[in-house]
Amino acid sequence: MQKSLALKLFSVGVLILLLLVPLKLIEGLISARQHRQMEVEQTIAASAAHAQTATTPFLVVRYIEQVTEESWSEPLKRYRTVTTPVTRTAMFTPIEAKLEVITDADARFKGLYKAQVLKSESRWRLRFEVPAMLGTGLKREVVEQLDAWIAIGLSDARGIIGAPEVTWNGSALTVHPGTGFDRLANGLHASVGKWPDEKTQSIEASVKLNWIGTGALNFAPLGQRTQVTLHSPWPHPNFQGSFLPVDKTIGDAGFRATWDVTHYASQNDRLLQSANPVLENFGVRFIEPVNIYLTAERAVKYGILFVALTFAAFFLIEILKGAAMHPLQYGLVGLALAVFFLLIVSLSEHLAFGAAYLAASVACVGLMSFYISHVLNSRRRGLGFGALFGLLYLALYGLLLSEDNALVLGTLLLFAALATVMVLTRKVDWFRLGEVAPAKNASD
Question: Which pTM value belongs to this model?
Fold first, then answer.
């Protein structure tokens, strides 16, 4: 008789392993849908504009220096003085820069999938101090004035909306595409006229620029101090980058965040001098409150735990109540548990995740309660198992909502399940269990 009990345990174990197959297939389907979501985001970004990174506006000055040096003349057999014109570029970042940005998110759809396209309205207020003769210490006689311009880097210039506005000491400037600065080409610039000057110059400037981007908005600070204040009605910001906000307010009506970065904390002024500068930046990603694919993928990882707990409950009923269940019935209930996770994914693509989870839970709990009440020939036991499944789904939802506490909650769930089994079977004589034939199914 002990052989029949061992065979039953073996069959249930094999079924649990076999149910890993549909769970893995569902997990693969979720990954494919998630990959498709990412492809759609890239497609929309390619049609509109990618995630944007805007630099603090900076001043670029190009001039020609007459360089005089001694050069050996072979025909004359002596050194002679040679003057060579050399084109040089000087760059100046602001002493102080303040930026106000208002950003709103607009969902763009492609079939079931969507991406957040961000529309930003920005206004820079800047103060520059440029030393006499660009701080070179050169005399006016050896410097030829060329041109100077204010430049703003924007990672994807396709996103610029309308005509940008640049003022320089109160005068409006004409804006042109490109920064005119080879090391940071994407963006725009506006000419400020001839330079350098023999006196130190203090200049007030402003830049008004509107643009769109997809998914995220970042800023690369330049100069001695950059202050950025960002407002948005989007209630789910994810702050990112090298610097976090010094102040932020987040609520259902949106968020407001302020960054204050100085040249003591940022190396961007030095990095901008390199051949291919990769600037430090900060910003925010506009995330969905619930990523249905990541959440569903996490849920599937608990699938085998659900199956094991359910089968353990069936086995306890067989032992304690003398009810008999065929391995095939175990398998059908296990498949119903697996289909639950598929229902979550399919429904959440059309409904809010909470509503999709509730609908999938009600459908599966109802189906399994109906089936088990007939298998065990007991409506009371069917409703009891329905309540058990409801608690399991409720516990899983709690695990999904509380990602930071998922480990401790999952551990407590396992401990509670083990403790329940040990308490209920504390008086079972496992050596004599197989000697007693299963009783007839009880009926209410």
Answer: 0.76
